[in-house]
Amino acid sequence: EPEVTQTPSHQVTQMGQEVILRCVPISNHLYFYWYRQILGQKVEFLVSFYNNEISEKSEIFDDQFSVERPDGSNFTLKIRSTKLEDSAMYFCASSRTGYMNTEAFFGQGTRLTVV
Amino acid sequence: DAKTTQPPSMDCAEGRAANLPCNHSTISGNEYVYWYRQIHSQGPQYIIHGLKNNETNEMASLIITEDRKSSTLILPHATLRDTAVYYCIAREGGADGLTFGKGTHLIIQP
Lengths: 115, 110
Prior knowledge:
- The complex is a heterodimer of chains A (115) and B (110).
- Chain A is mostly beta strands.
- Chain A has no helices and eleven strands.
- With 110 residues, chain B is mainly β.
- In chain B, the strands form two sheets. A five-stranded mixed β-sheet of chain B has the order 1-9-8-3-4, with no helix packed on it.
């Protein structure tokens, strides 16, 4: 069964460093998403991406975040200058279409620890 | 997306049907009801969704009341592996992100 894959599974980085989280969405999917979950808290939407541009972003997705689809298969989330409060699980998701009756499938996440 | 209300936790005996309720009294006519679950810290897993008709797939059944103000997710024969947090989400925009609440922590007892 096709699945969304994320790498690495765990990333430790020093405060102030740039980090790139990688995702390979399901191959025939056109919409891509990033979510995060701080330990013990809700899953929060960050950004959606379609046709090489951002469709929607939340208040969390400020100027330190950026997304890219560099090569037609990978979908990346870059955090420019990490802060301690960026420590969280980051989940990538994809869906076939952007219609409201289309389910999104999630990857297993990258645990980001900022020290 | 409309707000949904779920009980914070529920228990169910292994082998029995688990019925998870969700209230979405302010749901609009074009909002779908989605159910996801999250096992420990894994990525949310899609279960089922529907608009107004009842739906069934290999994982679960979704019963939506006629007025669409509430719904019930049914896991017909719960196993220990069904222990997870279950999220009921009313979704309007497809390209928009899903709004997760706190969900229901379902614990399957042996």
